[in-house]
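Usage example:
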Amino acid sequence: MSLTYLEAIREAQAHALRDDPRVFIYGQDVGSFGGAFKATKNLAQEFPGRVLDSPISEDAMIGMAVGAAIEGMRPIIEMQFADFSTVGFNQIVNQAATLFWRTKIPCPITVRLPFGGTSGSGPFHSQCIEAIYAHYPGLIVLTPATVEDAYAMLLEAVAIDDPVIFCEHKFLYYHLKAEKLPSEALPIGKARIAREGRDLTVVAYSAMVHEALEAAKELSTEGWEIEVVDLRSVKPLDTDTIVASVSRTGKLLCVGEAWPWGGVTAEIISRVTSEGFGLLDAPPQRLNAKDTPVPYHPNLWAAHRPTARSVAAAARNLLRS
Amino acid sequence: MVHSVLEARPQSDTASAQDVHVAAYRFMLLARLLDEKFAALYRAGKIHGGVFLGRGQEALSASIGISLKKSDVFAPLIRDAAGRLAFGETVLDAVRTYLGSALGPMRGRDGNVHRGKPQEGYLPMVSHLGAMISVVNGVLFARRFKGISGTVGATCIGDGATSTGSFHEALNQAAVEKLPLVLVVADNQYAYSTPTSRQFACDSLADKAAGYGVEVQTVDGTDLAACMKVLGEAVSRARKGGGPQLVVADLLRLCGHGEHDPSDYIDPKLKESPLGRDCIKVAEEFLLRQKWMAPSRIAMLRNELIHNIEEAVAQVQREPAPDPFTEEWKTISTKHLSEYEGS
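Running the assembly step on the lines above writes:
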């Protein structure tokens, strides 16, 4: 049996619905249609009354989830695209994220954001907005890069007593496959060394992990051994694993598909320079998307986001410095 | 604590009309007196941040709170001191929140009108207007999901909040799900300084109901008896499965947006119109006319409530303030996943 990243997300939701009567799914077209990406395929049929179509009302979808969470439920909200979560942004950052701090009542909601670029998706179906959620106190922000993590981390997200922004990459949905579902996984908050190396640390997350791994493969033919750290979770951020890696390699390149101003890559560089300045043999670098909306045409899109090629080029510059 | 001359809430569903109206009036008066105390503390520089009064909206607000059961859900807005008290909030918790006591429900983390106890169905508002409606929907949805029937959820907004996307999304959502929601709009003629002519273009906010497929009633928000009738019926219809109920009350805000606001923009003609009547006076006249209360009893009640408020304020002023050195600076409940551990 082989399973895609998307199927793992579907399986994790089926598992959560089966195991916990407090779980329900609410989102646009998630019911009998099975979701725009089929992440809830057949779940409405398997779990009658627990997988429900919502109106196109992102604000009210999140508000509804918060109210249900106050009442002890564990809602999973599917945003059809991460980009549209900005319409529900207020409820996420002001309602869900502040509830426990203000009232001691936990807010166990999971907001699934199909995010990131795919060819031809353009400015409003491609965005990477994990950093803006990570900026707000009160949210956990997850960015699984593998089929196994998509499954295990979604299950853990539903079990966590706090609001989780679950960023699932659309580019990984179909072509990333695994042989089986994992029975155990690293806990949330721990990064993973996706490839060991001694010459340079590349920190990446979500789809960029695969670009980094491909770049590492290419550079290995040139004699460089690149260590790739897969963050898994951008909030909390596993600074210890990153600093430990930099202590071995002395060089740091951070890769993010999000826009360059601020964000996850900037946060990592800030932390490493503060906590491990003496470990660095060269100025740390970062590679992000260009500072424009995500373009439609494949030629433009491929140049807009970091790719294995641009990661390898940035790594070469750093290795030679 | 002095012995009360009145029961706070009528004890049963079969309480007499006299009992419920007198009880509602008591909450109106308590809210007015409490608001006046907050305003005085604000002017004396004893309150951090703003003070927001419900002056002119007490009849409407008390009618909502008293029409609900303790097992219902209530998400009040800024001018609902009376409804909060009628729903079961204590004067002590209100004072603690305004004065930032560490012993209050918000522990100094949030203040003034941003207070509640979600575990008791009393939801603390966020400042973003219309945002609480869908949260009430969520509680009602979850109760239905769990097989709990007979719950009603009520929430309050002003005319300004009807212009938000949140209002639209949430009222539509409640209608689609046929939830037992009572959405009360206090059309108090101004959203901060903006008159209704710059807020909406329909004749009445009640016109909006048809677009959502929900029932609507309008009411004179200055008239306690009318508010009690309309709110009581709306809550009852929602409880019996009649779906969302919109109630639009016409009244005038008899104060500024907050105590910082001299509100000189309010049209004097409105103040002199029937909308500008003080609902407390209207209620007193009604109760006297019905011979449900004597003037002496009203005077006694006023003194008793003032005494209770003064006692609460004196107690809270002796309570500890939040301490930044012992404060746990963490936002999430899953402690080991907190960022900035130890910072």
